[in-house]
Amino acid sequence: MPDQRADADTAVRNTHRNPGMALELDWVEAARVNLSAAERRAATLTTRRSVKKEYQAAWLVKSITCMDLTTLAGDDTPGRVQRLCAKARRPLRDDLVEALDLADRPPTTGAVCVYPTMVAPAVKALAGSGIPVASVATGFPAGLTPLPQRLAEIRYAVGEGAAEIDIVINRAQVLNRDWAALYDEVKAMREACGEAHLKTILATGDLKTLRNVEAASLVCMMAGADFIKTSTGKEDVNATLPVSLVMVRAIRDYQARTGERVGFKPAGGLRTAKDAIAWLILMKEELGRPWLEPELFRIGASSLLADVERQLEHFVTGRYSAGHRHAAA
Ligand SMILES: O=C[C@H](O)COP(=O)(O)O
């Protein structure tokens, strides 16, 4: 099988940071997106391209290494987080790892993503694994607590050992097109992160237009976001391919203008191996190979791994097992 695994030797996946830049309002205001063209292009990603047989298995393993294995539920407990971390360390059964010829470097997930009070148990459970802990923060998922509390929450999560912070932006600032306010808040959040990497969740399902999605993507990158992320998983509409296309093209434009590579994280509602392949195709076609690594690409998901494991089992054995055999994640 082609080897597309990522290195999982350190708990910080990407040492490079996006330094950000001054807010360039002209660039933000010039954002324009042709909705039907974006929808047509997104549709071709899953119809024109397909990935077959052993390449499909390699891509599915790749999707595991890029997965932020997530639990963000009101009834999360340290016990649940420990079980999730065990799955992150060993996302595939040993017999599948052997059969896929991965025993010398078995895959792990890209990160584990939890609420701030679950960071400490996650850090403990992942000690020595090289898997970073990501924490949501800033009043996730609505982001409507006062700014000092949102910044304090970031500092708390970093203090507990989170290496990555997934913040939510203030959607009202986008809907009011108050780009300076959005820029200032995200910049303050980046400062509060210290060494931790900043992912900015746009909650695209709340932003009304693709033009707003593009503009918000640019403002977050200008303010120093290391990743831009689609959704919390709690909006009515979460990650979609047209929205993701707009965001990755904003990443491309930002790189062309600044030379900086910003990562992308689709999240929310991604549950099937087919979804994982579709987003990997998007990354490869729009941004190229560097964005097929966990340093620049993550899939945020609470229930995707089960189907990926099931499809890999089918690849290895020719049979599907019952869904309940892959209960965790
Ligand atoms: O950031 C990750 C999302 O909250 C996960 O959403 P999901 O539960 O729909 O997979």
Characterize the structure shown.
There is one protein chain. By secondary structure, the protein is of the alpha/beta class. It has a single domain, classed as Aldolase class I (TIM Barrel), CATH 3.20.20. It is 45% helix and 10% strand. It has helices at 25-29, 35-47, 53-65, 78-89, 94-99, 119-125, 147-160, 171-175, 179-193, 210-222, 241-258, 273-286, 305-317, and strands at 67-70, 111-114, 133-137, 164-168, 197-201, 227-229, 263-265, 299-301. Strands 7-6-5-4-3-2-1-8 form an 8-stranded parallel beta sheet. Strand 5, helix 10 and strand 6 (227-229) form a beta-alpha-beta unit. Helix 10 runs parallel beside helix 11 (241-258) and helix 11 runs parallel beside helix 12. The structure holds glyceraldehyde-3-phosphate. This is Deoxyribose-phosphate aldolase. It catalyses: 2-deoxy-D-ribose 5-phosphate = D-glyceraldehyde 3-phosphate + acetaldehyde. One of its GO terms (molecular function) is deoxyribose-phosphate aldolase activity. Pathway: Carbohydrate degradation; 2-deoxy-D-ribose 1-phosphate degradation; D-glyceraldehyde 3-phosphate and acetaldehyde from 2-deoxy-alpha-D-ribose 1-phosphate: step 2/2.
Compose a concise summary of this entry.
The chain is an alpha/beta fold and 329 residues long.
